[in-house]
Amino acid sequence: MFPDDPLKVSQLFLSLLGTRIHTHYRDRIPQDGAILVVGNHRSFMDAPLLMTAVQRPIRFACHHYMGEVPVLREMVTKLGCFPLGSPDQRQQSFFQKASQLLQLQQTVGVFPEGAQPMVQPTLPEKMGDFQRGFAHLALRAPIANLAILPVAIASHQESTNAAVPLRMLSLVDPSEPLFDQPGWHPMIVYQQVSVLIGRPYWIKRSQRADYQGKQARSLVAEITNECHAEIAQLLTQGCY
Description:
Strands 1, 2, 3, 4, 5, 6, 7 and 8 form an eight-stranded mixed β-sheet that branches. Helices cover 40% and strands 23% of the residues. It has a single domain, classed as Glycerol-3-phosphate (1)-acyltransferase (3-Layer(aba) Sandwich). It is built from nine helices and eight strands. The radius of gyration is 17 Å and the shape is globular.
């Protein structure tokens, strides 16, 4: 029987798969307060991998369809993930749930690349553009001493398998255009991987005060770009 603690579930899951993990710069992880973990994303293993590396449960936001597919739904629930709402409620449900968790001093995780690298995987050292929702969340959440923690997942050895036809997933979530194509949803399994912890980005009170009007857009872009650049640099270092 699987344990109820998401961290223990993650550790057991990776142990059963025989994944070897090397964690670097663990001393950069803040020991107190709410943390928003931001990472690159290529595999269904990324959430349990980051929990194991950071050594704490992380409440990850995940794609809407993961809460609709029966077996997958039970899996993400065990890991403590919260599926995003339907398209018309997605943004609102994300901000509401994630903000509540952060106010409870929990660690929240976001993969800003979205679903595309899961459906159309790239090389381990490559990373797509970041969506900016996590930066908006960090500035909106009424929390003192909030840290954004950029983390890079650098795969050294992996295998890619076919999981499920993409058009089958479109029956569950017809709103996702990535599912409206032939082929299979790939499933990347890490055999050996490095997790590199970046330097935390602390949200300042002055930034929250500036989060309005035209200043808000430039501030959100600045935070997004800094986190993207930090993870990109760590990936270059990790994918040797």
